[in-house]
Every structure is written in C-alpha cells, then in structure tokens.
Amino acid sequence: MEDTSKIGIIILAAGSSTRLGRPKQLLEFRGKTFLRQTIETALQTGCQKVYVVLGANYAALKRHVCDLPIEIVRNSKYKEGMMSSLKSGLRRLLQKSKQAHQNIEAVVVMLCDQPLVEAKLIRKLIRTFREKNPLIVACEYSGTYGVPVLFSHLLFDEILQSPLKEGAKPLIEKYKDFTQTISAEEPSVDIDTPQDYQKLLQIELLQASKTSEKS
Predict the structure, then answer these.
(1) pTM across the whole model
(2) Domain assignment present for 194
(3) pLDDT above 90 coverage of the chain, percent
C-alpha cells in the first residue's frame, strides 16, 4: 500500500442537489448512501486525514456519518460554488496539520456523486504522484479529465486564493503541462438528475446479471 501519511482527502458533499430534487448524498447504492460509501472508499485507501465538506442539509447529513473517523467541515458559503467547499476543506486540513506539526504533501479531491469510484483508483492517483511528482494527477475519462484529482502542496496557496467558482478543471487546464493523467472510466457516471440515478441502477443490474451468468 502507498504511503498515505502525508496525503489528505477532501470529499465535497455540500451541494443542494437542485436538479435532483432531494439530497443526492442520501441516495442509496449497493446498500449504502452515496455519502457513506464515498467516505468508506476514502478510508479504505489508508489515508487517515479524511475531511468531508457539508453545506446544504448539514444537520441531517452530519448525523448520518458522525460515527466515522473523519473530520466534518461546514461550508456556509456552499452556494458560491464547488471551489468554496474545496477551500473550506483545505483550510481545515492545513490548520489541523499545522497544530499537529505535520506536513501535507498533497490532497485528493473526491465527490460524493461518483459511487463507482473505488479505493484502488485513489491509490493509483497517490502512486502516480509518488512516482512522477507532478503538480496534478487527474482522472481521464469520456474524452475529458477531472475528479477524483490530486493536487500537490505547491498549489495549495493558489487554490485558497482562487477567485474561481468552478471545481478542479480550470486549474488542470492551466497546469496541463505539469499534470499526469490516469485512465479511469468509473468517475464518468455523475449523478445530477433522477435519470442519472436510474441509469446508475440499471448499470448495476446489468453488471449483476453478467456476474450471475458467469457463475
């Protein structure tokens, strides 16, 4: 297993799910909510610095995961966009690490609406960072690239000072010459609408059917 002692993970789960009409964090997949499954995936990597940023429906979501060994961060400005949540999580991570006299070499950013992402993909991001030492390691899928994504500590100040509201893509584009990408189809299923959720469930049923046929 990769050395994760100086790697933090920030899970962005602050959105209000307006297009879905209900909190996507509490949608169920494989017997668990999206939020809980994403957190457990992060913990399976061996990273002990897992920070979960909540905003909309804060109290309900916090109750749902407060038993897990994570740090919960409240972003009261979540309506300002995804970058506001990343900043909130990163500030808390750096504050806690400074208090503990620990250095953070990089941070992995995950979303709670990518339920097909597995721990092995996160470990691959970390391994690529260890081997290549780039500024960014991003996932490449469906003709694009994005999260989960790893940022080197050399970009922390820029992230915290960024006026952008979008997520990781503008930074990846800016530093594309210093970015390593890994192939990953799993994140390509984002859940934003009821139709997306039904598509995900259909994919799962199809995979279960294929597994049953093989056995």
Answers:
(1) 0.94
(2) no
(3) 73
